[in-house]
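Hmm, what's this shape?
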Amino acid sequence: MPLLPEEPQIHESAQGPRATPATGRTAPTPRPVPGPRPAAPSRPGRPGPVRPAPPAQRMPRDVIAAKPGPSAPAAPVPSGSPQIQLIPASAEGALDAAEEAVDLLLDSGRAPGEVLVVTTGEPHPWAAHELSFGEAAYWAQHDAGDDVFYANASAVSRAAGRPVVVVAVNGGATAAVAEALPLARTRAGALLIVCGDPQRINSVLGASV
């Protein structure tokens, strides 16, 4: 039957613009995996090289999407001890998980100076960079207490307590982890967040209560 004038014809253009021709249509680009946090910018009065800048704040939905999964149950702790939250992560992903936890803490209203981040394996890039200016300058920033501070497990005994301590179990000998976790708990006033293998973490924390 011939098409009547009243019956509209559906053209290809009615389906909306195409990002590419149908024959060359490509799949959506995968979302990039968050990498190491860029380092902090030069502080006033600091001569020499420009310090790496702090990471751009991620939107909460981006952070939540990147989280490795729900927190695992933590080992019981005595009354009066900080709350303990475990975030399951591999040794390779523990530092990224810790960064995401810090972002969520800051998004929720925590002041940067309330957060201490501890690594059990390789030092955080920020800590390694700041130590290149000398230990005196590095610890002066710790004493100022106005920003998130990053320390390796070997330096936790020198760090002052803060309301929140985030530990990235990103490697290190078992003995070093077993020593760092209980010490980190003594530095946490309200909340201890540990990112790593839950079985390993619970075995250490459970033995220390």
